[in-house]
Specification:
Layout: E1 2-10, H1 23-38, E2 44-50, E3 53-60, H2 67-86, E4 111-118, E5 123-131, H3 139-147, H4 154-157, E6 165-171, E7 176-181, H5 186-193, E8 199-206, E9 212-216, H6 221-225, E10 235-240, H7 247-251, E11 259-262, E12 268-271, E13 273-274, E14 290-299, E15 302-308, H8 316-330, H9 342-345, H10 350-357
Parallel strand pairs: 13-14
Antiparallel strand pairs: 1-3, 1-4, 2-3, 5-10, 5-14, 6-7, 6-8, 8-9, 9-10, 11-12, 14-15
Helix pairs in contact: 1-2
The structure holds fructose -6-phosphate (F6R) and magnesium ion (2 copies).
Length: 365
């Protein structure tokens, strides 16, 4: 059966500060999603959160970028913002950049990852959701999952994956895209993927079947808003097993923390710490950035799960290493490379301060 999986997310208010979500907000989202399921708009749904980001995971048969599904998400975010405002949560409605819905939430603040698939006999999926980081944060893990045989041994020893995967990479600043094939174009691919503040993997495809393997949200909140309002806090859907990497191969890149941009005030590099949903509360210096992984089996569009995949002692070392990296980076305080390079600080609150200091700079003789 043809099925669409839509993951649409927004930060509509934090509890306390920017470190977590209030249960009443999640309850309100549940209510809207349940009504949409009852009305037949959705086949199934799961509401969760990563840090202060509200995540709507939905299955339906209406295709990608469907107006009804996007409106449902937008209205749910608005209803949850009302709850957030009543509780005076911090930054209530922060990611909703416009008052008027125009048929598609893309460009309006929320992050979106959607894929239309033919549900397989056993359809295992992992949905990654991150907080306090930017959309390029999935470049390194997606490269490891779909192009690095030291991570994914299936690329070497499984005949149905040996043909490799194609990567759709977006230039998030210039709005361009490029398709590159692994393994033969990995050196070209890394030219782009190694610069995650500018280039982000939008999707990955199985080269022989042409089937979609992964999709991520590449929306840059600062670009949409034209100012700093918070980080993108991206999501990514990955199909697993069979002719896709196994769940364990998909989780493996997170066994060693990747260093990403985000953290305090969206202005720092920090380790991406894999945690359970319950532990996705970026507290220390508003971080370190978190990532959760919700695993589901799809059954006729029903979301069987979630299995909270990082809720596992196998990721204790990654968490320990993330804390060690955090200690080391924090020693640098406001210095680069803990603080982002000036070019990236353009999209934070620093330019306002720079403006004040401009007059102090005088020409050298
Ligand atoms: C980072 C983030 C936080 C805030 C910080 C200041 O993505 O959301 O680190 O930038 O807590 O928040 P405001 O300006 O809302 O007081
Ligand atoms: Mg926030
Ligand atoms: Mg957030």
């Amino acid at each position: 059966m043809k099925l669409t999986l839509s993951v649409i997310k927004a930060d509509i208010g934090g509890y306390v500060g920017h470190c977590s979500s209030h249960p009443d907000v999640l309850t309100r989202a549940e209510k809207n999603m349940a009504a949409a399921k009852k009305a037949g708009t959705l086949i199934d749904y799961h509401v969760t959160r990563c840090g202060d980001d509200l995540q709507l995971i939905m299955t339906h048969q209406k295709g990608e970028e469907n107006g009804e599904i996007h409106k449902l998400s937008w209205d749910t975010f608005l209803a949850c913002t009302d709850v957030a405002k009543k509780l005076k949560l911090h930054g209530a409605g922060q990611d909703l950049l416009s008052d008027a819905f125009s048929g598609n939430v893309k460009g309006m603040g929320p992050g979106v990852a959607e894929m239309e698939i033919e549900e397989r006999d056993a359809e295992s999926i992992v949905i990654f959701m991150a907080d306090k980081t930017a959309s390029g944060a999935f470049n390194l893990p997606l490269y490891k999952i779909f192009a690095d045989p030291f991570n994914t041994v299936g690329l070497v020893i499984a005949g149905n994956m040996h043909g490799g995967f194609a990567f759709e990479i977006h230039d998030v600043k210039e709005h361009k895209k490029v398709m590159l094939n692994a393994p033969e174009e990995i050196y070209d691919m890394l030219v782009f993927l190694g610069a995650p503040s500018r280039y982000a993997v939008k999707a990955v495809f199985h080269r022989e079947t042409k089937d979609i393997a992964a999709v991520s949200s590449t929306q840059r909140l600062s670009m949409m808003a034209g100012r700093y309002v918070g980080k993108d806090d991206p999501v990514c859907i990955v199909r697993c097993q069979g002719y896709f990497p196994a769940v364990g191969e998909v989780l493996e890149p997170f066994a060693g923390p990747n260093i990403v941009e985000g953290w305090m005030r969206g202005s720092h590099h920090g380790p991406l710490m894999p945690t359970s949903v319950a532990q996705s509360n970026p507290t220390r210096f508003d971080g370190p950035p978190r990532i959760i992984a919700a695993g589901f089996q799809l059954s006729g569009g029903m979301l069987v799960g979630p299995n909270d995949l990082f809720d596992d002692p196998a990721f204790d070392n990654a968490r320990k290493q993330a804390n060690d990296i955090a200690d080391i980076l924090r020693r640098m305080g406001p210095f680069e490379p803990h603080r982002l390079p000036l070019e990236e600080m353009e999209y934070t609150t620093l330019p306002q301060v720079m403006k004040k200091l401009k007059g102090r700079l005088i020409d050298l003789d």
